[in-house]
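[stage:ingest] chain + small molecule (S-adenosylmethionine)
[stage:ingest] validated
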Amino acid sequence: MLYLVSTPIGNLQDITFRAVDTLKNCDLIAAEDTRHTRILCRHYDVQTPLTSYFEHNESKKTEQLLKHLKEGKSIALVTDAGTPGISDPGYRLIHLAQENDIPITVIPGACALIAALSLSGLPSHNFIFEGFLPVKSQARENKLAGFKDEIRTVIFYESPHRILKTLIGMEKVLDNPFVVCARELTKKFEEVIKGDSRQLIEHFTRHKPKGEFVLLLNRKKS
Ligand code: SAM
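[stage:predict] done
[stage:export] tokens:
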């Protein structure tokens, strides 16, 4: 059995009983960063062996993990934070396991985009998740321009180094849209900053962006 186990996005308490039980009772934990997952395992007294499974060894490691699964071992797949496969490694293993008739189940839990959406106060009956925007400015602006007529809430993951550039791009190509910035969710400095893109540009010019961010935009509110 392959278990897709969601882990906390900050606060270590945000994990389900079933997730902890699964981590304790499986044969192997495949983790994006074993150092990171070790902290979680120590906290919950999980003694299961860990192996790394990250973007750059994904194709090689998938074969090894598949071999273990075919031998009847149970593996829990976890990433550094949140739900495996959501802007994180996992897709290849999940796909191959399905193709090889390996039973798979999910242990749902924290996911940054869902936490941000529910906290944002933006319309949530209908939304789009875009993951990370392209790094290059032109490609990012082209992508953003595609949301000119979008009335649904659009959600992005973004790094603190690129927040300002992204907001400037939004102001330029989307005519100063309404933006919600959800920062450091579930952590000590959790913060939700709302305003039009110009106000947020001003904010982050005065306060250097730090931590992890989810950006949400909704053009109906501008
Ligand atoms: N699989 C994860 C999930 O289910 O949310 C997402 C992994 S993605 C590589 C990491 C990105 O998620 C970060 O760069 C940030 O944009 C967002 N993120 C993760 N934890 C967060 C938090 N505590 N607060 C705000 N954003 C967070």
